[in-house]
Amino acid sequence: MKYILQKLGLFVLTLWAAVTLNFILPRLMPGTPADAAIAKLSQNGPVTEATRKAIEAQLGIPKGNIFEQYVSYLHQVVTLDFGTSYTFYPQSVSQLVSGALPYTIILVGVVTILAFVIGTLIGVAAAWKRGTWMDALPTLSGSFMSTFPYFWTALLLLFFLGYVLHVFPTTGAYSATTTPAFTGAFAVDALYHAILPAITILVTSLGGWILGMRNAMINTLGDDYVTFAEANGLKSRTVAIRYAARNAILPNLTGFGLALGGVVGGSVLVEQVFGYPGIGYLLFNAVIGQDYPLMQALFLMITVSVLVANFLVDILYGVLDPRTRK
Questions:
Q1: pLDDT (tens digit, 9 = 90+) per residue, 107-150?
Q2: CA distances (Å), 184 to each of 104, 178, 191, 198, 302, in order?
Q3: 3-class secondary structure, 233
Q4: Could you tell me where in the chain the CATH 1.10.3720.10 domains are found?
Q5: Which residues contact 132 (CB under 8 A, 6 or more apart)?
Q6: pTM of the model
Q7: Which class in CATH covers the domain with range 95-325?
Q8: 295: which of 24, 120, 143, 158 lies 20 to 30 Å off by Cα?
């Protein structure tokens, strides 16, 4: 219980620091959203001060000194009310986030979990059969796949499977003629549009999980308790899973916590290449449009998800390896 309370206190302190940085960072950017709107209007003639104030009022630009803005921002965080988006006016930030979040969680979240599970199991098998083809094949292929960046793999798949062969759609999360609804037809159409982004994320991330688990487990296989278990005549599967893999998985588990926390942030480059309307695509447009309310909401979601994932991993560490509690 003391271990959990210590981790919880650290979590709360880190969360406050992250929330404060989330307030400061967007305000360090040069210019304001009102300046961008006025720059467009100024092409037709000079813009008066009254017009500037009207634009600022319409966009809901924060007023008062920095401390007053900070207090107002904390109130928004507590009430989950981040106001109206500057870029997608007059839609609210809550509407935009709630519309984009399911696509990112289903796509990036499911693929991240699959990549972790598949990569970890392959890494365990490769380490246990080290020196054989079962070790060489996944190791070489994992090293090869991990060298390709997300956007390059996405562009290759988009070009060959989308534009050349016309096997998969090239943009969007569903067809233009389909209406989003909880129906089987929409689910099939959405799944069809998600195949290329899912393959991109799976291919580029699988190699890292394979190599990480393999290397960690090879080090574990040389420990005395593994040798003792083998000498006692235990089954190979029991030694590999319950003794070696259980301890070797801890470094991979840390990486999985970070990856799972980053699910909410989406994969910005992949979503941008495929025009997939997830959180990453929304974040890119928010930064381009200097959309403070939308940026703050998205950054806060990403930060909180990473902190929560790390907190859960810390607790799981204490369960898998009781030595970490001390």
A1: 888 888 888 889 888 988 888 888 788 888 888 888 888 777 77
A2: 19, 12, 10, 20, 30
A3: coil
A4: 95-325
A5: none
A6: 0.75
A7: mainly alpha
A8: 158
